[in-house]
Amino acid sequence: MKTTFDKLKKSNLMGTFSIYFVLLALFLISMMANENFATVGNLSNISRQIAVGTILAFGQTILIINGMLDLSSGSVLALAGVLSVDAYLKTGSLLISFIVGIGVAVFCNILNGLMVTKFKTPPFIATLAMMAMARGAALLYTNGQNIYQIGDYIVFGQGSFIGIPNPVWFLIITMAITWYLLNHTTFGRSVYAIGGNEEAANASGINVNKIKMRSYIINGIFVGLAGIIFMSRVNGGLPNGAGGYEFKALTAAVIGGTSFSGGVGTASGTLAGAFIVGFLDNIMVLVGVNSYLQQIVRGAIIALAVIYDIYFKTTRKKLKASKG
Amino acid sequence: MNHEVKLKVLNIEKSFPGVKALDKIEFSVRKGTVHVLCGENGAGKSTLMKIINGIYQPDSGQILIDGVEVKIKNPIQAREHGIAMIFQELNYIPEMTIEESLFVGNWPKDRFGKVDWPEIRRRTLALLKAENLDYKPDMKLKDLTVSDIQMLEILKAISYQSDIIIMDEPTSAITNKEVEVLFKKIFELKARGAAIIYISHKMDEIFRIADDITVFRDGKVIDSKPKEALDIETVIALMVGRKLGNDFPKVEVPIGEPIMKITALNGEKFKDVHFEVKKGEIVGFAGLMGAGRTEVMRAIFGLDPIHSGEIAINGKPVKIKKVKDSIDQKVVMLSEDRRRYGILPVRSVRENISITNLSRFIKKGRLHSKEEIETVKYYCDKMKVKTPTYETNIASLSGGNQQKVLLAKWLITDPEVFIVDEPTRGIDVGAKYEIYRLISDLVIEGKSVIMVSSELPELIGMCDRIYVMAKGEIMGVLTKEDFTQENIMRLATGTKQNH
Question: Which residue of B has its CA nearest to A185?
C-alpha cells in the first residue's frame, strides 16, 4: 500500500518536473556545443521566433486539457492577420486593426465551438473544416496576393518596449493569462475536470458546453493576437502565411506534457515545450545539422514525448488495477 | 427423449480480490431441458456462466461435457464445445448487417482465403427461412429492435450447432409479446435436445419454462430441485434466506414535514412514479437490476430528461433541466458508477472535492485560496478519508476512500436531500460501516437521504420506508413493521402490493 503510493508520487513528480530538466539539459548541452548559443542576442532571437507558435500553443493547451484541439489555428491566424492588416491600411488606426484581428479569430472560434457543442462534431473534424474554410477565405479576400507596405503596423511584431521585443511581451502576457485562468479561476478548474472525466464533470454541475465554448473563444483571442504579430513580423499580409503553425503549437503543448487523453497540462509546461523545440531548432542550425535531418529529429521528439505520456498513463492504470 | 446430463460443473471456485464469488459450485443441466438459475444480484450466477463461456477461468474445479472433462480458455473454445451465450446486455455492432453478424468471427472463406459472401448469403437465407423469420440478410442491426437482435443471437447459436445455450435475463429488455416468441423458440430448442441454462429473476417466467431450478446465494448453491418440488414462496425464501445482523448504525431521529414530493413522473425508463421524502428520513429504493431506480434518480438530479410529471421541493414545484438546477435546490446525488460519473481520475483529492462548489472559494477573483484547503481538510477529517496528501491523485485511493471523497464533494454544497445510489458497492466491510455512519450523521443534521441499493440487508438496516420498483414502476412501499426480505423480493419480482 505504502509503496504503491510512493511509486505513484514519484512518477507524478517525474511527470511534473522532468520537462524542465530536459529543457535545462538541452540548454547546457547547446551552450557547450556552440559559443554563439548562450548570447543575449541569440536567446532574444529564439524568443522572438517562437512567440507566434507559443501563443497558439497556449490556446491549444487549454483545448487539449479539455479533451479538444484546434487544427484551424494556422489558417485562422492568416485570415485574421490579413484582415487586420487590411483594416490598418484602410483606417490608419492600429487600435481598429488590432480589434479586427482579434474579432475575426474569435468569430472563427465561436463557429468551431458551435460545431463542437451544439452539433456534437468531433473537434478534430470541426476544426479541420475551419482550417480549409479560413485559409480559403484569406486567399479569396486577398485574391491570393500578398499585401505589402504595411507602414506602422510593424510595431506589433518588430517594436520593443524597455528593451524587450514586443512579441516577447505578448508571449509573456498570454502565458500569464493562461496560467491564471488554469490555476486561479473556476473556468480553469472546470477545464481540468471536463478533461479528466466529462460525464463526472457534468454530474458535478459543471456546464460542459459553456466551458468548451469559452475555451474556443480564448483560443480565438490568442490566435488573433498571433496573427497580428505574425503579419507584422513578416512585413506584410500573407494569406498563405503560417501554414502548419497549428502543428507547431500542438508539438509545443504535447512536449510540454499536455496529455491528449485530457485533464493534464500546464501553461509553464507548454512554454518549456516551446523552448525545447526552439533551442533544438536553433542549435541544429548553429552546428550545421542537415535541414532534412532536423525534421527527423523534430518528429522523433514528438514521438518520444507521446510515448512518455502514454507510458506513465499505463503505469498509472496498472497501479490502479493492482489495487483492484 | 433421454434427458441425460449434458453439462456438469464440479467444485468450481472463483475469488476476486476481497470476495469469494463462487464457493464449491456443483451444478448440471440435462439434454432437452431448461435449467433456471435464480438468486439476488451478485449471488454468483453470472460469474459461473462466464466461467462456462470461457470469459473467466475458475480457481479450481472441473467442467464436464457429456461426461468428459474440458478446459475452456476463451469464448472461441466454448463455441467449439457447442456452448453459446446470449448476454443480458447485447453487444452488437450497429453498422453490421444481419448476415455479417450471424457469422462474425467465423466467416466462411473460399479456397483463396477470401470471405465467401455468396456462401454467407445462402446460409443466412436458409437459416432465416428455416426459422420463418422475415428479415433481409443485408439489413443493418441498427435498424432492428432489441428483440430482433436477441432472436438473431439465438439464430447464431443455432447456426453454430450449439447444444448448450446460456441465456442471461433474456427478457429484461423485450415486450411481453416478444417474450412469447422467445419462449416458443426455447421450446423448439428443447425439443431438439439442446440443454438450456436460463438466468432470471421473474418468478412467473421461471415457473413457466423451468424443468429444474437452482438457487444461488452469496456464491453458493443453496438448493437445486425439479420445478415440481418448489413454489414461488420457497424460491424467494431461498434467494434471500440470510440472517440480518444488527450492525447498522441506525439512529432514530424525529421525522419532519415532507421536503420532496414527486408526482406522476415519467421518463424514458420509468412511468408514473409518485413518492415523497420527509425531513430527517432515510427512504430506500429496492428493486432488481433494470427496475428503473437509478433512472428515476438520474432524472430528478437533472442528468436525464423528464418527459412529464412534477418535482416539488418544500411544497414548491421546481424545474430541473440540468444538474446545476438540482444542486441549487439542494438535491445532490452520489452515482452508482463511481468510475464513470464520480471521480475525476487524473486530478487531486482537493480538486475532486471542491469541483461542486468552486464559487464558494473565490476570493478577490482568485481561486485556490486558503479557504479551499481548509474546507477540504475539514470534510476529509469529517469523512475520515485516508489519503497521503490532499494533492494525491484520487485514482490512487481505495474504493472506500474514493467514495468518502465523493460524499465530501456533495456535502460542501450543503444539500437538504442526498440521493445515494449503491453507496457501498465495491467497497470493503469496514468502509461500508463508515458510509452507514455518515448517512446516519446526515439525518441527525436534519437532512434527508434517498438510498438506492441492491443489498436488502442494508436497506432494511438503515431505512425508515422502502419503495420497491419493478419494470420502471413503483410496485409498493413498505413501512418498518413490514420490512422483510421476502416482502421486498415479492414486490421486486413483479407481484404488486394488494392494498
Answer: B367
Comparing CA positions, the residue from B119, B185, B197 lying closest to residue B158 is B185
Is B159 found in the same domain as B81?
yes
Distance CA B201, CA B183 (A): 16
**Co-location of B44 and B149 in the same domain:** yes
pLDDT tens-digit profile of B379-436? 999 888 888 889 988 988 877 889 999 999 999 999 999 999 999 877 766 677 888 9
CB contact under 8 A, B367 and A183: yes
CB–CB contacts below 8 A, A to B = 95
Q: Which residues of chain B are within 8 Å of residue A319 when distances are taken between CB atoms?
A: 396
Three-state SS annotation for B96-154: CEHHHHHCCCCCCECCCCCECHHHHHHHHHHHHHHCCCCCCCCCEHHHCCHHHHHHHHH
For residue B499, being part of any structural domain is answered with: no
In this complex, do B346 and A189 lie within 8 Å of one another by their Cβ atoms?
no
pLDDT of A293 > 90? The answer is yes
Q: Is the minimum CB–CB distance between A11 and chain B shorter than 8 Å? A: no
**Cβ-contact A308, A55 below 8 angstroms:** no
Q: Going by DSSP bridges, is the β-strand pair B34-38/B195-199 parallel, antiparallel, or unpaired?
A: parallel
User: Per-residue pLDDT tens for B210-268?
Assistant: 999 999 888 889 889 998 998 888 888 888 775 444 568 888 899 999 999 999 999 99
Which chain B residues touch A195 with a CB distance below 8 Å? 346
Nearest Cα residue in chain A from B334: A203
pLDDT on residue A3:
44
* B19 in reach of chain A (CB within 8 A): no
Q: Do A203 and B333 touch (CB under 8 A)?
A: yes
Number of domains in chain B: 2
Measured N-to-C along each axis, helices A166-184 and A208-233 cross at an angle, to the nearest 10 degrees, of: 170
At B395, which CATH number? 3.40.50.300
Mean pLDDT rounded to a whole number for chain A: 90
Pairing of strands B5-16, B60-65: antiparallel
In-domain check, residue B105: no
**Within a domain: residue B406?**
yes
ipTM exceeds 0.90: no
